[in-house]
Amino acid sequence: METLAASGYSAHLVGGCVRDSLMGRQPSDWDICTSALPEQVIAAFPHHKVLPTGIGHGTVTVMMDGNPVEITTLRRDGEYLDHRHPQTVEFTDSLKEDLARRDFTVNAMAYAPQEGLTDPFGGADDLKAGLLRCVGNPRQRFDEDALRILRLLRFASQLSFQPESDTLAAAAELAPLLEKVSVERTAAELNKLLLGEDVFHALCLAADHRIIEVIIPEFSPCMELQLDRRLFAAIAAAPPRLEIRLALLLHDIAKPQTLYQKGSGGCDDHAAVSAARAETILKRLRYPNSVVKRVEMLVRQHMVPLPVHKAALRRLCAEWGADVVRDWIAFRRANSLATDQVHEAEQCDAAAKLLDEMLAAGMPLRVEDLAVGGKELLEMGVPPGPMVGQILRFLLEMVLEQPELNQKEILLKEATLLWHRQSDS
Ligand code: ATP
Ligand code: MG
Question: Were 348 and a residue from 156, 201, 229, 333 both cysteine, which residue would form a disulfide, CB within 3.0 to 4.6 Å?
Fold first, then answer.
């Protein structure tokens, strides 16, 4: 800010960093708005690395001691025609005009050390009251850019704020416009909402004002059966890990349907049907493959009984991988807490502890963890081919049952017996 001022330009901190600082929170990033044009910003920082992040919209990123600082030229937005982007962007000298284009009053404040706070829309008062209020007419603002409807809910989740009543009414009314927003943007906001501290509150708003159904129409039957509050409580009880929270949101998505079918002798394996549907939904929202796979797995296996003994837990780890089992236990724990199954939640805690201990002790879980490998078997005289794999899998079964048997001499002896038995038959 001093560098920009020295070159004769205005410079203010703006948006999220001002809001977070006033709340006593650590801002996730620092945004500066300035009267300098992008090329003037670049010229003002000849000794810094400068990235042309969004020159068209007036944004460049200056690297300061390894930290990115986004510097954006003051601008006013032109007309919005597609419910998402302004048709044109015009640069301006007016800080107030720049603040007027911002979504919520708590996000429309600027700060500079000499001037203090610039707050033309009452953001500081709303911040104190914990209110999310659109800058200007909420219907117009959501109509311009429907993504703001989801931003409203994600800030409700992250900040634990309440939408002001006109703002909320407009969000509910214009929610169908969310269909115009790209799935990537939708998913990015949904993720922040799900990982926010007050996720229960935000999801209830999304459900009660029928906003969630625009993003996930498949969710409607769950709401009709009033499953939603239990699902939301489970999400709030889960650790802030996206895959677990998405899985909790979607794990009963086919339950209403399978409940109806059950009576007529139809499908009652709702876990498998829900898993398939969760996969379809997440693929439609273009989630990364790794997320889709993990969520699908958690949903598909969500009815599997909790392992109470070490061997059963080792078996699950061998089958699914230890990191899946860890997420699965956390998923189950959250679900138990949400349905007041205290005993099951305690079993989950015990299983999680056991898993940590087993992993810390270097428990063998995969064929690769065995004290012997294919090489030793070939040296022993086992012919190359499927028998090598068969013997190794048998040895793993044995070791999963009794990990203390994972020693080279013991396994080689066992392998010899197996091999001879195989060749005899
Ligand atoms: P975070 O801590 O998540 O980064 P943030 O408030 O900084 O929160 P950003 O998405 O980084 O949110 O946006 C920075 C600022 O730009 C916002 O505070 C707001 O003033 C403005 N803004 C961002 N997106 C929009 C939008 N769709 N419509 C209007 N203003 C927006
Ligand atoms: Mg930000």
Answer: 333
Long-range contacts (CB closer than 8 Å, 24 or more residues apart) made by 1-6 = 1/32, 1/112, 1/113, 3/44, 3/45, 4/32, 4/34, 4/36, 4/41, 4/44, 4/71
Tell me, what amino acid is at 320?
W
> To test the ligand 1 pocket, which listed residue (19, 98, 99, 107) has its Cβ within 8 A of the most ligand atoms?
107
- b/e per residue, 25-60, with b = 16+ CB within 10 A? eeeeebbbbbbbbbebbbebbeeeebeebeeeebbb
Decide the pairing of beta strands 30-34 and 116-118.
Answer: unpaired
**Is the pLDDT assigned to residue 261 strictly greater than 80?**
no
> What is the radius of gyration, based on Cα positions, of the chain?
28
Both tokens of residue 233? 């409580």
CB of 102 shorter than 6 A to ligand 1: yes
Identify the band that residue 263 occupies on the pLDDT scale cut at 50, 70 and 90.
low
> Using CA positions, which residue lies closest to atom 5 of ligand 1?
16
Calculate the average pLDDT of the chain: 93
pLDDT at 262: 57
d(CA 65, CA 119): 30
Give Cα 45 distance to the centre of its chain.
36
CA–CA dist 379, 386 (Å, integer): 16
pTM: predicted TM-score of the whole model, two decimal places: 0.90
pLDDT digits (tens, 9 = 90+) for 303-355: 999 998 888 999 999 999 999 999 999 999 999 999 999 999 999 999 999 99
